[in-house]
Design a protein that fits this description.
This protein is α+β, with helices and mostly antiparallel strands. It is built from 9 helices and 11 strands. The strands form 2 sheets. Strands 1, 2, 3, 4, 5, 6 and 11 form a 7-stranded mixed beta sheet that branches. Strands 8-9-7-10 form a 4-stranded antiparallel beta sheet, covered by helices on one side.
Length: 301
């Protein structure tokens, strides 16, 4: 196998996991994309540049998550490049619960595979997805980043993901705080056990959420009621949960995106009056994005 000549560019979407009750299983791809351009170059140098989110803060060496993911792909394929040039144009906010790490992992794996002629013959889609979930530690964000749309993922004798339909009327508004949070810290607030009644209620809402996103968005408010994780995480993100409470009290299907602290609210179209009313409620100092559901997943340009 040989490396392809010239640069290759991939784009990968932001994602929101959990979606309320679907803890560690449900994920949705959003039309906010990072763009990664890689090229194999002579010599033994690594050149990494970043613009946008993470610029000036993320490492520019072998510890960069995209580079680590690319190295993992090259290792599976059995061909490491002598030199590598990588440029990242990042639009997905970091440490906000919008899947920036999953985008980096999926983008790096797909980019490396595309840089090797015939790389997909060794690193097929299933192997790539398994490696992505292994690097991330769970599949709920890497699944929609790879497949696009709405996915149900888990770990049962190997990671799996199933993509299901999304009603075309569904869009979202995300409210992004100025400061981020740590997934590990948010997970550390969760109890080891929960009441059986809460687990049963959450299972029912998760099932309803699959139906609501597929073709019954009028049930999204009821379907996004969570019993397992959001309330326990309130001490780590009080402003986010206060916004969720405020929106839900007004009938808006609002949730914490992933491990937070971003708040996601479901709407009825990026250009709709409902979306305009939602964006007007963005707290001072926060960023707000009206986004469609991304149906493509990772793409090679």
């Amino acid at each position: 196998m040989t490396f392809v000549e010239g640069p290759v560019t991939v784009t990968v979407p932001a994602t929101s996991a959990n979606l309320g009750p679907g803890y560690d299983s449900l994920g949705l791809a959003l039309d906010l994309r990072d763009e990664l351009t890689g090229e194999v170059v002579p010599g033994g140098t690594l050149e990494v540049t970043v613009e946008g989110a993470g610029e000036g803060t993320v490492p520019l060496d072998e510890s960069h998550l995209v580079v680590r993911s690319m190295r993992a792909a090259f290792e599976i394929i059995g061909k490491q490049p002598a030199g590598l040039r990588l440029h990242c144009r990042n639009r997905i906010p970091h440490a906000r619960g919008l899947g920036s790490s999953s985008a980096a992992i999926i983008g790096g794996l797909v980019l490396a595979r595309a840089l090797v002629a015939g790389g997909e013959l060794i690193l097929d889609d299933d192997t790539l997805f398994q490696k992505a979930a292994e690097i991330e530690g769970h599949p709920d964000n890497v699944a929609p980043a790879f497949h696009g749309g709405f996915t149900i993922a888990g770990d049962d004798d190997g990671f799996f993901a199933v993509r299901t339909a999304v009603d075309p009327r569904v869009s979202v508004v995300v409210f992004v705080p100025a400061t981020g949070g740590e997934t590990k810290a948010a997970r550390g607030l969760l109890p080891d056990t929960v009441p059986h009644s809460d687990a049963a209620a959450d299972a029912g809402r998760t099932a309803l959420l699959v139906a609501a996103l597929s073709d019954a968005p009028e049930h999204l408010h009821r379907a996004t009621r969570d019993f397992l994780h959001q309330e326990y995480r309130r001490p780590a993100m009080p402003e986010s949960l206060a916004l969720v409470d405020e929106l839900r009290a007004d009938g808006v299907a609002a949730i914490v995106s992933g491990a937070g602290p971003t708040v996601l609210a479901f709407s009825s179209g990026v250009e709709s009056a409902e979306t305009s009313k939602l964006t007007a409620r963005c707290p001072e100092g926060w960023a707000c994005h009206a986004l469609s559901v991304d149906m493509d997943g990772v793409r090679i340009l």
